[in-house]
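Can't paste images in this forum, so I'm doing it all in text. The chain is below; anyone willing to post the predicted structure tokens underneath?
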Amino acid sequence: MDKLSREILQKTMRYLSLKGYKVLSEFALPNKKRVDIIAINLKKEIIIVEVKSNKNDIKLDKKWKNYLNYCNYFYFACNDKLKNFNFFIYMFHFYFQK
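Text version of the structure:
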């Protein structure tokens, strides 16, 4: 994991922890896929977060759909340069319209 991705991961983990979640990184799901961050709160709500630090990482990632059955909420964490990247909107629209 590159330096920027590590920074995004650490800040996201800190944020979730402050919100009352127990947080793990690099967690292997039962389907053998590894998520960047998984978190659970006292209500037993599970969040999975994938860290994205550049446009290529976003465009090439096809694994995230395999995580949806294992969480209540799924998010991408990214830096400010990617927060307005239209690919996220397209990706969710495309996936959830099927």
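DSSP finds three helices and four strands in the chain. Confidence is low (pLDDT under 50) at residues 87-98.
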